[in-house]
Design goal:
250 residues, TIM Barrel, 2 domains, two-stranded parallel ribbon, 9 helices, 8 strands, 13% strand
Length: 250
């Protein structure tokens, strides 16, 4: 029988395809676990290893509080820093480095990179590299995109600048206003257990600062780490940094 509405059916089918394609692109651009736009470092296959990473610093006094806890338990972490805060507080950057932690690029001003022109993306990354390298006197090798957002050309620029992109597979939600240390710790423990059941290591993302400015309250993060680290050590967890993960996954 002749179809009286071929155009309507074609348009409906095209709309469904477009929605599906849009969903896939959104997943590829924003999901921490996606590798569709290019390889990123996430975690390895050892369920007893945890990488603790902090974004959005340096931030006084909370970065210092975290350094105290990590030093007490001889744990190394990775700090992805915002360039404009690096310029304001180079003393904190030097303290993090002197304590033996890995420092990475988190752009100059923390934009959504998927919404920026390629020229702005390159400037954000290059300026943050310059800020960190001016303070530390050494090359920066790791990068975390703000909000996890990236496109194929963003990752291409990352690599052209000699950086390795690092994502995560456990989120503490410590950026939420008013969240408690117990809630942050609960999110972390749930994610760690999920990864263990899957036979995978854990890469935690937390925040020692906030994109709005230095002074963001991260007391819940500090307390969650104060409780989580000794318990994890008791459970025979090995703490690693982003460079450890990259070596294992190269």
């Amino acid at each position: 029988m002749h179809d009286p509405f071929p155009t309507a059916k074609f348009l409906a089918s095209a709309a469904v395809t477009a929605v599906a394609a849009g969903g896939l692109l959104t997943y590829a651009a924003l999901s921490a676990g996606s590798q569709l736009f290019g390889r990123t470092v996430i975690a390895n296959r050892n369920p007893n290893e945890i990488a603790v990473t902090f974004d959005d610093g340096p931030n006084d006094p909370y970065t210092f509080h975290l350094l105290d806890i990590l030093a007490r338990h001889q744990v190394r972490a990775t700090f992805f820093m915002i360039g404009r805060f690096v310029r304001q507080r180079p003393d904190i950057v030097r303290a993090v480095h002197a304590a033996g932690h890995l420092i990475g690029n988190h752009t100059m001003t923390h934009p959504w990179l998927v919404l920026e022109l390629p020229s702005r993306v390159r400037q954000e990354l290059a300026d943050c590299n310059a800020a960190l390298e001016d303070v530390l006197g050494e090359k920066i090798e790791y990068f975390r995109p703000p909000h996890g957002s990236r496109r194929p050309d963003v990752l291409r620029t990352v690599r052209e600048l000699g950086l390795t992109p690092v994502m995560w597979n456990v989120f503490g939600y410590d950026w939420k206003p008013g969240i408690s240390a117990a809630a942050v710790k609960g999110h972390l423990e749930k994610g760690i257990e999920r990864n263990r059941r899957a036979g995978r290591g854990t890469n935690i993302v937390l925040h020692d600062g906030g994109q709005a400015g230095i002074g963001e309250d991260r007391s819940a993060t500090v307390e969650a780490i104060r409780q989580l680290v000794p318990k994890s050590i008791q459970d025979r967890v090995k703490f690693v940094t982003a460079d450890d993960l990259n070596c294992r996954n190269s």
